[in-house]
Fold these 2 entries.
Entry 1:
Amino acid sequence: MVSRLTGHKMHKMHMKIIKLAPKFLKADLATASKIGTDAAHTYAECCRGDTLQCFLDGQKLIAYICSHQDTISSQMKSCCEKPLLERVMCLLSVENEDKPEDLTPTLKEFVEGKDMCQNFSTNMDQHLLNFVFQYAKGHPEFSAQLLLRLTKQYHDLMEECCAIEIPEPCLSKKEEQLEKLIADSKAVVTAACTRHSKLGNYAFQNMLLTRYTKKAPQLEFADLHEYTKQLTSIADKCCNQDDGYRLKCSEGNVNIVLGAICQQHAVYYINRQISRCCSGSYPFRRECFSETTGLRFLVFLVKHKLSITDEQLLNVNVKFTGMVAKCCDANNHEECFSVEGPKLVAEIRTALGDN
């Protein structure tokens, strides 16, 4: 088996491919990988302040792209005809190529075929890189975060199903999970845009302010106000985009704001829930911040007994808070809520005399 990259290195490689693939539709995976690796090396030289090496590496990369433009992208021609010093900015700002209709891949291409598991086990890194490369090229409307989530879930299902003697039925069933992941990501953005459309900027920010105050009551008002103001601006900007850009615009910009919260948390500890989201998987960060399982459960409890007294409600809140703390510390919090939730419901029904 070919040696596997560490998670961090593979994540960086996937991000390079995600950024380059929609721009270079004609390029194959090997060419896109080379450009991504060389570009990252050039950026590193520039950021270290090595001006001469930065310039030399940059010119070498541009020369490679322009000498292979026919097999990389039709967008390169106008940039490569410019004077040498103008080519860099032109190439950096080049738009994505228009995607041919026959370029959109389907999940079936990656879960069907007798050699699929053999290819995965023999060279997992290359197999996953090809998966994210084909999806980034074929779905320019997908955000980087969705593509990374999709790749992670695809990796997990391949590991699970390929360990079975006859993997085909397992792979076919798991395909539905990948389809659901895509549908759920789109639904989250659609729901947020619907709320923004109905509420308007002011009420939408107030809603976010309430939500994030519950998530991070330790933050100062000025911080909460600024973060929710930025999130509201994102909704105002991205929800007016067409379907081809809305998801990418929303998730990409929201993750920048969440990244700012995580940077603040790294300097001034906020709370355990924020810590879990910030130290967890990057592509799942938005989902972690957006978790509402516990809130829905609490609303259900209150609605279940409208005549509940203040003392009874206090006891419910104490028990509920304990359950949330326990499940948020669990490795699989969704599974914990699904187990502990019904137990708590039964316990509270008994306490309220509702059997």
Note: The two ends are 59 Å apart (CA to CA).
Entry 2:
Amino acid sequence: MTSKGTESEHPSVTLFRQYLRICTVQPKPDYGAAIAFLEERALLMGLSCQNVEVAPGYVVTVLTWPGTNSALPSILLNSHTDVVPVFKEQWSHDPFEAFKDPEGYIYARGTQDMKSVSIQYLEAVRRLKGAGHRFPRTIHMTFVPDEEVGGHKGMELFVKRPEFQALRAGFTLDEGAWDVEKTGHYSSHCSPGVRVTSTGKPGHGSRFIEDTAVEKLHKVMSSILAFREKEKQRLQANPHLKEGAVTSVNLTKLEGGVAYNVVPAAMSASFDIRVAPDVDLKAFEEQLQSWCREAGEGVTFEFAQKWTEPRMTCTDDSDPWWAAFSGVCKDMNLTLEPEIFPAATDSRYIRAVGIPALGFSPMNQTPVLLHDHNERLHEAVFLRGIDIYTRLLSALASVPALPSEN
């Protein structure tokens, strides 16, 4: 891929880089600057703009392009405004400069996750609206906070509010795969954080103390990590399985102890567990309880976020939404492989209230660098994404009334 000089930079790329320079990094995102940016875009594009404060300081911005038939449920294009933290010393360029190298790669936090998609939505709508197109279904674009830390002060609250109900969403697009141009996500992992706490006898570090917190915690960790290895082997043994089809487990935090020579009375281990949608959640919770009991007295666990039953969006050719989505991909020679998203996005909250949602981020020929150092995206890949969304929006917003909508 090659790139032209900055003097002839595509206006959409310039806009993208402008948005990337807004520092919405956790844990202290500048949401105000992002909202001001979106309000300005709405004004320039002739779209209505609504700001909904779902929690103090947490605002969902909604941009709306009305359709010709307000009786039809709308198309919802969702994206989040926050990005994950960075280690600046590990980056070759300032992660909020939006530096573009001579090859056309743009370096910035959010290039892949997911400010590119936000601007692709905006530019696809601008392109269609500017060309005089009108569609039966209204298109809403939601820009939500807090997704990178669970969405508890973002989409989780927004779907419960009357402002969300008023959108009358019939179908949703959200973020999806990054590395290939062939994947559409129709569900996602249930992703509770699990914290296991073990209590035991304390004492001096020079003694062989029985029934220590560390020994019992080690037993639970061994059980959970053995399960992890089993799932890993199951994935590796079956070339037809995708990551989203198995349950992933990672030990992410160990806590406890006060001094080198003191055996602690309590220790804890935190796990990031991404449960596959076909797993019986009650049975899995009982398995966690069993592992804790087997380790001994005084071993318990708690959820950082209690899981909910995941829902799946239909990807059958008979489904009008899927037919419209996959039809465009076929016309554009994009090979689709529907799969379960191995992580979790705000789509889980949308699906939970009964609205179908597909995760899709068109970023082919791109190294997967979300949440990583030197996150980047080539401008040509970004621009192609606008072309794809332009076609997708035309098709989705033109889906005739479904039998369930009459």
Note: The radius of gyration is 23 Å.
